[in-house]
């Protein structure tokens, strides 16, 4: 497996485009298109929030009914959530407009929206944007990067990655782009992730690889505890690599799933580290757990603790907050067995042993916690299972961004 330059246009047969349609923003691109020259098998996972945005409902229908797709149309600025029948109707209008401009079937056009909840989309601007996207689409790497930039809201940077693997002597590529910065919480978040591959793969294998990996990647990140109405991960496979078909449970499936995990984990960490107002990616590893559920529950509880997140922002090794978060997580463990470490590029330091503080240098701890990526490692000494969660520090910048987000 090899990481290569690019994103959604890295795989054979995929093109992308971006445009400034004026949906909400006045000074930047705000619409993106991903297009495949050949109809694609689709897989997807979606928000667990009972309140689901119109595009989520539309895309679930496409994925769950096995409808092939050749395009994803995405807008930023307005989420098209809590918009009733009118908002869902705009999904249909968007799909028909894209189908007309691209010469494809409307029923398989996938849609993504992100931004303010409750506002109706300016559909005429959206349609005008689609016409421009269709003309501008290109297979080059830069077009993929610009598409990744166009779906940003409060993100500070685009998020994209591509990898290649060998399957039966053929090169298979997986590329992806994502957005997400706020309203981020386990069980996905205000995040959109779009992944393309040229693999020949069965529908079952495609959906299984995605569904099984989401619990280890996107569902293990948190910024602010809010699970969004718009969470969507879509995976499209057009088969242009011409490899022998990848089937569920085979060695080739395992290889594909591993590569997909690299893509998903990278994008998930980029989202977590780009949390609104954040200055550091906060990684939490729980080791020595008796089972995977216990490890995940503890890791999520620590990474979601606002008190812990503010301590990371202040570069303060306030280990009591971590033990406290573990204690209310709902997972059973023995506090008197816990060892805790902090680690970053500045080094590694042990803070507690068997549930109590040891003699450590506060100065060294502060240096370690002052880096842009910080890891807390909790060893509960009960078994061999591990889990990792990702979040960020919590600063006043989060309030600055969200106090007047609608305006």
UniProtKB/TrEMBL annotation:
GO cellular component: cytoplasm
HAMAP family given in the database record: ArgJ (MF_01106)
Protein name per the record: Arginine biosynthesis bifunctional protein ArgJ
EC numbers on record: 2.3.1.35, 2.3.1.1
UniProt pathway: Amino-acid biosynthesis; L-arginine biosynthesis; N(2)-acetyl-L-ornithine from L-glutamate: step 1/4; Amino-acid biosynthesis; L-arginine biosynthesis; L-ornithine and N-acetyl-L-glutamate from L-glutamate and N(2)-acetyl-L-ornithine (cyclic): step 1/1
Keywords tagged on the record: Acyltransferase, Amino-acid biosynthesis, Arginine biosynthesis, Autocatalytic cleavage, Cytoplasm, Multifunctional enzyme, Transferase
Position of the signal peptide: none
């Amino acid at each position: 497996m090899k990481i290569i330059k690019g994103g959604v246009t890295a795989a054979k047969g995929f093109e992308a485009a971006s445009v400034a349609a004026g949906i909400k923003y006045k000074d930047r691109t705000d619409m993106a298109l991903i297009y495949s020259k050949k109809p694609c098998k689709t897989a997807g996972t979606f928000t667990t929030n009972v309140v689901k945005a119109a595009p989520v409902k539309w895309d679930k229908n496409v994925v769950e009914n096995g409808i092939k797709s050749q395009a994803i149309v995405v807008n930023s600025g307005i989420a098209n959530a809590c918009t009733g029948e009118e908002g869902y109707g705009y999904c249909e209008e968007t799909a028909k407009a894209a189908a007309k401009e691209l010469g494809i079937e409307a029923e398989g056009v996938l849609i993504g929206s992100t931004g303010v909840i409750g506002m109706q989309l300016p559909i005429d601007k959206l349609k005008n944007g689609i016409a421009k996207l269709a003309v501008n689409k290109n297979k080059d790497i830069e077009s993929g990067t610009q598409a990744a930039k166009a779906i940003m809201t409060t993100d500070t940077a685009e998020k994209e990655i591509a990898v290649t693997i060998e399957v039966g002597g053929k090169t298979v590529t997986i590329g992806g782009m994502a957005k997400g910065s706020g309203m981020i919480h386990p069980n996905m978040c205000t995040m959109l992730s779009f992944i393309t591959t040229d693999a020949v793969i069965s529908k079952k294998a495609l959906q299984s690889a995605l569904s099984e990996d989401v619990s280890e990647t996107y569902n293990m990140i948190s910024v602010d505890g809010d699970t969004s109405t718009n969470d969507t991960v879509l995976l499209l496979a057009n088969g242009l690599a011409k490899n022998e078909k990848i089937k569920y449970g085979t060695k080739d499936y395992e290889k594909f799933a591993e590569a997909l995990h690299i893509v998903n984990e990278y994008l998930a960490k980029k989202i977590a580290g780009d949390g609104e107002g954040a200055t550091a990616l906060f990684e939490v590893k729980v080791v020595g757990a008796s089972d995977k559920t216990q490890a995940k529950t503890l890791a999520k509880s620590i990474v979601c603790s606002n008190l812990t997140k503010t301590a990371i922002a202040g570069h303060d090794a306030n280990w009591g907050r971590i033990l406290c978060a573990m204690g209310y997580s709902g997972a059973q463990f023995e506090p008197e067995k816990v060892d805790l470490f902090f680690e970053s590029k500045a080094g590694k330091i042990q803070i507690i042993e068997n549930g109590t503080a040891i003699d450590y240098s506060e100065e060294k701890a502060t240096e370690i916690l002052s880096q842009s990526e910080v890891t807390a490692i909790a060893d509960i000494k009960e078994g061999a299972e591990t889990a990792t969660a990702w979040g960020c520090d919590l600063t006043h910048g989060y309030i600055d961004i969200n106090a007047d987000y609608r305006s």
